[in-house]
Every structure is written in structure tokens, then in C-alpha cells.
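Hi there, hope your week has been kind to you so far. For a while now I've been wondering how a particular protein folds. I'm sending you its amino acid sequence along with the C-alpha cells. Could you read through the record and tell me how the C-alpha cells relate to the sequence? Take your time with it, there's no hurry, and the full record follows here.
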Amino acid sequence: MRIIARSTLTAFVDSLGGSKDGLAVKAALDSWFHEVSHAHWKNSADIKRRYVTASIVTTERIVFNIKGNDYRLVASVDFSRSIVWIKWIGTHRDYDRIDVKEVRHER
């Protein structure tokens, strides 16, 4: 899968600064990026086989738990083109304040 964009993950980790979670979040996101970039998903069932705790809201909104569910990553997947768009990433607490169906990545 092609992931758009890794810079979103890097910027999020950078925004954590020297917080105690910084290194653990970076490791978790690096692992997620590596796994997803090597995946060959054809449908949402393929995602659920690998990420049992992922929430499939729609193909436009799939929620991945990051670092033991302390953080959440919202993505959109185009299976036919093998593309994953990162729509949002934040803490679980921040996730509770958004509308997962409407949230969009801000540049």
C-alpha cells in the first residue's frame, strides 16, 4: 500500500516534543507505516485480519489504535489503487472530540 503521507506521522511525532510518549509513539507509528506499506489489502476484511482492533467505520474512515490505544490514527483506503490516506492522528482523548466521518488532515 502507498501511504499518503509519512510527513503527517513525522509532524505528529515532532509535535509531541520531549514528552514521555514521544519515542514510544514514534516506534509504534514506524511499525504501523512499515506493516501497512508492505500490505496488499484487497478489502476491509484484509485489514481486520491484521489489525483486529481496527474500527472500520467506512472505507473512507478506518480507525487504527496506536501504542496500546493511547493514540488513534484515522485513514481512508482506496483498495483498487492500493492507497492509504492519513486523515487524522491524535490522542484517544482528542479522538473522542472529533467526528470521525468528517475529520480531514490539516496542512
